[in-house]
Amino acid sequence: MIIWLNGAAGSGKTSVAAELLDLLPGSTLFDPGLVADGLRAMLPEQRLAGVADVQELPAWRRLVVDTAAALLAELPGPLITPLTLLRQEYRDEIFGGLATRRIAVQHFLLHSDETFLRTRIGQRAAVDGEAAAGRPGRPPGHPAAPSWLAADSYRVDTAGRTPRETAVLLAEAIRRGDGTCPIVQTPPPRAETLAAGVLFFDDQDRVLLVDPTYKPGWEFPGGVVEPGEPPARAAVREVAEELGLHLAQEPPLLVVDWEPPRPPRYGGLRLLFDGGRLDADRTGDLLLPGEELRGWRFAAEDEAEEMLSPGRFARLRWALRARADGRALNLQAGVPVGV
């Protein structure tokens, strides 16, 4: 287990973590800042020059997960992690990676003053987002940091309390299970995978996208095809599990795309099917499993380009073409072959 202490600079995370070590038998301090120091020492200057914060490095986020897993293989735990984590997409990637390794997270937000916390978080988010060297901000649908932090964590007020008093409150909350992040636990793939997604549309031909809790960015409804399972049937099963939508028949295929392996990802085949239009009654009945998805929305093609990864958007773009032409397309790395 990991006890993640979040909050703005000055909220007392480090001093509270030191007190927690005395209150939780077997606990160990896990400082991801040491991972950052290692990367700064090893990466060339030109790579570091392109980032304002080491958290922007995919290597840092992967190493945080891998290091935590390695420590918990050696120690009884829990790991106490005092670290400011403000970007929701980074939270998804790290907490989702921990979940795939069966490592539970209890997420706590320490704050001493509401106005102070929002000011500091807003300043940091601006640096990490739009205002930093012209980098794009969060994709549509990702709220400002204080909003998602309040919803994702258990808040502990440190105002007027010593670090020891705050740690005692935290220890009680930890024993109650407060702050537990229920994230779907899917083992990481060990080989190429076959995945099936379904595209649904509204009356404006906007496509339905979902926001996973366990990885950054938006996705299509769907998931991995189980061994021996027909892909179209897997697509039907996945949308029933994820959205509560029950399709009367297996949907027609739009595209099949071979995604090449790019370490550490294995790649594999990605299929998209046409789920047709959803009227207001059916969208009103959508049910999201909180441990997998936090939200959904319909997006026009230009909006989807900002919300999806480049590979997923290429897949969507050709799927829309296939839907308009009435014939399925075969893609390799998002590019049609034999056309």
Describe what this molecule looks like in 3D.
The protein is α/β, with parallel strands linked by helices and 339 residues long. It folds into 2 domains: 175 residues, Rossmann fold, CATH 3.40.50.300; 144 residues, Nucleoside Triphosphate Pyrophosphohydrolase, CATH 3.90.79.10. It is 40% helix and 21% strand. It has 12 helices and 13 strands. The strands form 3 sheets. A 6-stranded mixed β-sheet has the order 8-6-10-9-12-13, with helices on both faces. A hairpin with an 8-residue loop joins strand 9 and strand 10. It is elongated and about 65 Å long. About 6% of the residues have low confidence.
Mind summarizing the main beta sheet? 6 strands, mixed
Distance between the termini: 51 Å
What fraction strand? Answer: 15-25%
The CATH architecture assignment of the largest domain turns out to be 3-Layer(aba) Sandwich
Shape: elongated
CATH topology call of the largest domain: Rossmann fold
